[in-house]
C-alpha cells in the first residue's frame, strides 16, 4: 500500500465556535489518513478562543486583531506542514466519503493534471472536461460557461499542493472578504493554473450558519428587485472587464470597492 503524504487541513475561523466544532467533527469522522488540523483564527473574542482551545486542534494560530479573511488564510497556510493542503472555512463540513476520492486527487496533483481540485460548487458548470470517473477539469474559458468562467476558483473546500501559493501568489491582504476572493479569482483567471472539481460533492455548508461577509456592507440600504438573469449577465460582463484589465503587479480591482479599507479610515 502506498504511503499517504501529510495533508494539512486548514480551517479559517472567526467567532463561529459552534460551526467550527461541527467542521472538525466531520473531518475526524472522515478518518483521513496522515493529516493535521490547522485552525487559523482571525482575532475572535477571548471567550471564543478559550472555548476552541479545548477542541483538540493540532495547530491553532491566533491573531491579536481582526485582519480579514485573506490575511487569515495566509498565516494559516504558512503554518501548514503538509505537502498538500485542504482548505475549508469553518462553515463547511467535509463528507465522510471524501476518502473515496482523496488519493486520486493527490495522484493527479502529482502528475500536474491540475493545480487545485474543488470538492463542491454552488452551481453546476455547463461545460466540464472529464479526467476520470470522479474528477473533471473546469475549462479556462468556455462559451457554455459564459456566466461561470470566472468562478473556476472559489474559497469553498478544495485541495492543492502547498507550493501552489509560491507559484501563483498568496491572498491580497487588507481587503474585505468579497473583494479578496474576487481579486484572487481574477488572478487565477489570468494565470495558467488548472482547476478541477469532483463530479460528486464532498463538502456541504453547515445548515443555519451565517456568513461573516454579510456584515461587510450596510444591509439597511433599500433593496431594488431586479431580474436574476439580468443580474447574472451584468455580473459576467463586469468580471470579464476585470479579467481583461487585471494587472497582477498592481493586484487591484477597478469596479469593486474594498469594504475593509472603508472601515479602517
UniProtKB/TrEMBL annotation:
Protein name (record): Glycosyltransferase involved in cell wall bisynthesis
Source domain of life: Bacteria
Keyword Magnesium assigned: no
Swiss-Prot/TrEMBL keywords: Transferase
Pfam families cross-referenced by the UniProt entry: Glycos_transf_2
Domain Glycosyltransferase 2-like: residue ranges: 8-111
Organism lineage: Bacteria, Pseudomonadati, Bacteroidota, Flavobacteriia, Flavobacteriales
Cross-referenced InterPro entries: Glyco_trans_2-like (IPR001173), Nucleotide-diphossugar_trans (IPR029044)
A single MF term (Gene Ontology): hexosyltransferase activity
Amino acid at each position: 500500500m502506498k504511503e499517504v503524504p501529510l495533508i494539512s487541513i486548514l480551517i479559517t475561523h472567526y467567532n463561529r465556535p459552534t460551526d467550527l466544532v461541527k467542521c472538525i467533527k466531520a473531518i475526524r469522522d472522515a478518518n483521513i489518513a496522515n493529516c493535521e488540523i490547522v485552525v487559523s483564527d482571525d482575532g475572535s473574542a477571548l471567550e471564543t478562543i478559550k472555548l476552541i482551545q479545548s477542541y483538540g486542534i493540532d495547530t491553532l494560530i491566533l491573531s491579536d486583531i481582526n485582519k480579514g479573511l485573506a490575511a487569515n488564510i495566509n498565516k494559516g497556510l504558512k503554518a501548514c506542514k503538509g505537502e498538500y493542503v485542504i482548505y475549508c472555512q469553518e462553515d463547511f463540513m467535509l463528507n465522510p466519503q471524501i476518502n473515496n476520492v482523496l488519493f486520486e486527487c493527490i495522484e493527479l496533483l502529482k502528475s500536474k493534471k491540475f493545480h487545485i481540485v474543488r470538492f463542491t460548487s454552488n452551481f453546476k458548470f455547463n461545460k466540464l472536461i472529464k479526467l476520470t470517473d470522479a474528477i473533471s477539469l473546469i475549462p479556462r474559458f468556455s462559451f457554455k460557461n459564459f456566466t461561470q468562467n470566472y468562478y473556476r476558483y472559489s474559497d469553498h473546500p478544495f485541495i492543492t499542493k502547498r507550493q501552489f501559493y509560491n507559484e501563483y501568489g498568496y491572498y491580497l491582504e487588507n481587503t474585505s472578504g468579497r473583494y479578496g476572493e474576487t481579486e484572487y479569482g481574477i488572478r487565477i483567471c489570468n494565470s495558467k493554473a488548472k482547476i478541477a472539481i469532483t463530479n460528486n460533492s464532498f463538502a456541504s455548508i453547515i445548515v443555519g450558519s451565517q456568513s461573516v461577509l454579510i456584515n461587510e456592507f450596510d444591509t439597511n440600504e433599500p433593496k431594488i428587485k431586479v431580474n436574476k438573469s439580468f443580474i447574472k449577465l451584468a455580473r459576467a460582463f463586469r468580471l470579464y472587464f476585470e479579467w481583461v484589465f487585471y494587472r497582477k503587479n498592481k493586484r487591484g480591482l477597478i469596479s469593486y470597492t474594498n469594504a475593509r479599507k472603508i472601515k479602517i479610515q
